[in-house]
Amino acid sequence: MSSPPTSPTAEPASSAQHRFIIVIPVADRPRHIRACLDSLHQLLQRYPYGDGDRISVLIADDSAEAVHVAANRALAAEFNRRGLTTVHFGPDEQMALLAALETDLPGVCGAASRQGTCCAAHRENFGHKGQGVMRNIAYLKVAELIKNTPADKLLIWSLDSDQEFCVKVATPEGDREVYSVDYFHDLDTIFSRTDALVLTGKVVGDPPVSPAVMAGNFLADVLGFLQRMAASDPAAACRQHGDAGQAGGDATYHDMADLFGFRQAATTYRYRCTLAGAHSEADCCAHFAARLNSFFYGEHPTRISYYQPADLLRSVQPARTVYQGNYVFRPEALKYFAPFASLRLRMSGPTLGRIIQSEIGARFVSANLPMLHKRTLESGGQSEFRPGIATAAPNFAPVIDISGEFERQFYGDVMLFSIERLAREHTIREPANAVQQVSLGCSDLVANTLDVVRAELLEKYNSRQRAIVDCLQVLDKLLHDPACWWNRAPEHAATVANFAAFTANIAHNFGPDSAGHLRINAAAGWARWRAELLAAIIAYPADRAAWEAQLCAH
Asked: CA–CA separation, 320 vs 146, rounded Å?
């Protein structure tokens, strides 16, 4: 078993001064990536690190729109002029790197990685490969960049483009976004004073999970809000500001938090009004109603996570989940690619975490270094690009369909908890020099594990669906109750319409006939997914061997 991280030394962390390569995959999110880099620039103005040559950024561009690729390339040039070393790793460069591979990596870098075929991939079809595939290709680029440089004082930091280098804090006057974490010096301290190999942070602000697994508790919170509104005087001063910082920590935003070892929230959460200045209860209700559909793009207005300061080294704890949008590792951990990336499943970070934990134990840690997570843009409440979500009639009562993301979430959960069980009792991969043909018995073990986990999760998803349908009926009845003040005056018609649009989208995505639930319950769908999950797990040892061989080639 690995030894725990070593105790702090008496020497200042500044004596180490690790260099950082920051890897940021981005797909058609020009405003998000600009905000991310702007926040990095602001952070370094507040907390200078080294002599200006210790930090570089690799923009791993997975955009499908040529205009966005060009904009990202220009953005890299702009930040180079502003003093931040920034490399744009675009589709053309990616295709050239894959064409030069000495090892076949289709399960890791997608079908385009097959030797001799990637150049046949049309440039216009090379975007939107998925965050896992894009990260893996970016890690190959990192290995190329550091080939002839000392690796002992180098750290690689994987981020998401919808995050910023600051945190959200709650104050009596409202939420604030502040630069109160000195990320680079803090990370330098941890990696200088411990033997941590991989460190994961978390996020504050919007939850890091899909709306596919948050609808139950959010719907309950919306019902609680509307019940309080029904008992209020719409003309009275707003009373929905509440206590500062009712946080959505410890996965309280997740409908099935118990799956991850957390207790389910015992009560509903109150919405904390964000309007400033004098305003009424009716104003608050209208503002909240207008935000509701942002939930389908990843917001959770009632269960926001806030930063809680803590002693840095005391916060370093053993970890089991990787937040792929905020984790840092030494170069030797490049061997841990995003697993099963070609399947494009959600939960690949937690799955990676279980694999890492099973292999390095206490050298895989977490620390209190969260980043601000912003799922949506301030204007419109939608994300710039989000795979698996489709919107129709965007200008009037939009119908938002998340069935694609819902399916990837469910089977991502099946993969995660199957890997967790297999890793607990068996080795997921053989050493690179001892990979052998997987036996039929091992194949049966994996298949049986998948069957059991899928059955357990299907029951939880279906049980939650029944609870959502029941809650939705109560909410609809209250919303359309003619006795409620919002139904007695025409000036509240827009508020009612926004609530109705939200409940219609909940019914569309979580009701009895919702496409996502029909897909995960379909026997034919499970047969297809079962075969793909089984093949991916069985191939993992060979994928690891091929990946490590390619890294050695660099």
From this structure: 28
